[in-house]
Specification:
The structure is a homodimer of 222-residue chains.
Chain A (H helix, E strand, L loop, with lengths): L16 E5 L3 H13 L3 E5 L2 H6 L7 E6 L7 H10 L6 E5 L4 H9 L4 E4 L4 H33 L3 H11 L4 H8 L3 H15 L4 H10 L12
Parallel strand pairs in A: 1-2, 1-3, 3-4, 4-5
Helix pairs in contact in A: 6-8, 7-8
Chain A binds a DNA duplex (30 and 30 nucleotides) through α8.
Chain lengths: 222, 222
DNA sequence: GTACGGGACAAACCTAGGTATAGCTCGTCT
DNA sequence: AGACGAGCTATACCTAGGTTTGTCCCGTAC
């Protein structure tokens, strides 16, 4: 069913995966067939703990959850995943949901909440949108965590200088604030540019924005 | 009921307003009393067109909408407001809502969706959260639109230079790309700094980020 | 103890950024 | 026609940014 023919090193490069969690085996089968019919990889589980035992996916993916699951409910699973810092987009499916449930799920970031019977096109669209969102989220995350790891390679003094420089101060002002000589700041600044991989001050400013190193305000003078 | 005593110039400085749209007069009264009891200003309407006739508020505010309204439904009103570029947070109240309605409302940005009977504390919390969100939205909007109006005072050449400078190019590189002399770029650059009210290149980069003037990527070299 | 890395600084040197003054063309508004 | 603003440039001058080479102190890991 799933066309994985053993340890083939290529092939699953960026192939998205749909995870299904539903206690109803016939539902799992139906959804699996549906998703595979449009070329998506699928992994299906009967309960929340089974899903949690697998390692978080490294490719764009989404979850299709029945809200009523034995043991951990779909909503609890959503909370647990959020706590575990796993932000795979979730699509809920429900037979007997109510409005407060829906609101809670949507407020917690669910991308859709479908009621049974689910039309094929409806859930395919939802899955497509969810995977697209996850792809974007992953792209952003990759960029930011790359910058963060560079930032962590800075010494504490270099970080001091970074934050003052990106806040717009001149070298001499940075030096004054840190009680250093201007030449020292210049040297640190060069080291920062190299370690951060920034080609220009503009790059550095953007990186520090991404890291959340804010000075005060998008400072404007009248 | 509404304690506005004529044209008093002070008093409504940043006083938030709750707008209510509900065709049930007794419900309007109950909600109005509830909100006023905690010191909130209230304006209540019986239908969507009545609300649309008033000018968009200039203070943090939120909407409390019954989803079933005569004529334009709550959901349609939400869409209309979005089209009119009015992004006041919306709290829906419903007696007989269903899940697809809820999902649609939440996907379109509603902050909450409550079912009757509504507990007092529940809706007060929702209103508080909505007003807080609107306050933040307004703050951000004010900052960005200030920057945008400065940007609009730039000549087209100045804008060219701005985008290349904030993308990290040196003056001579900007000059080469635009077919100008370096000195010309320097002079435009100075004019840009003055017109934009930027105290430093870092400021200018942040402003261009806020304006969505992106070069390509948070450019990193390995 | 010594080797190593962080932190700090200096002299010398070069490039980049930025201002003031002045002068030119071109199109448009009056 | 004349004034005006955008666009463009030059000379001259000054400040800010940035690298290289070399030196010193200190704490810690081996």
């Amino acid at each position: 069913m799933n066309e994985r023919a053993g340890p083939s090193p290529k092939e699953d490069g960026d192939q998205p995966i749909v995870f299904i969690v539903d206690d109803d085996a016939s539902m799992r089968r139906a959804l699996t067939n549906l998703f595979e019919s449009v070329g998506l990889k699928v992994e299906a589980f009967g309960s929340a703990p089974q899903l949690l035992q697998t390692k978080p996916p490294e490719v764009p993916s989404c979850l299709v959850l029945d809200i009523r699951l034995p043991g951990t409910s779909g909503l609890e699973l959503q909370t647990d995943l959020a706590k575990a810092n796993i932000h795979t987009p979730i699509i809920f499916i429900t037979g007997h949901g109510d409005i407060p449930m829906t609101v809670r799920a949507m407020k917690s970031g669910a991308i859709d909440f479908l009621t049974k019977p689910v039309r094929d096109q409806e859930i395919l669209d939802a899955v497509q949108a969810a995977i697209e969102r996850d792809r974007k989220r992953r792209d952003l995350y990759k960029t930011v965590s790359d910058v963060r790891s560079r930032f962590e390679s800075l010494t504490s003094r270099e970080r001091d200088v970074l934050s003052l420089v990106t806040s717009g101060l001149m070298n001499k002002q940075v030096a004054a604030q840190l009680g250093l000589a201007e030449i020292t700041v210049k040297i640190y600044r060069g080291q920062i540019m190299r370690k951060m991989g920034a080609k220009s001050l503009a790059d550095l400013v953007r990186m520090s924005e991404a890291l959340g190193i804010r000075p005060s305000k998008p400072d404007v003078q009248t």
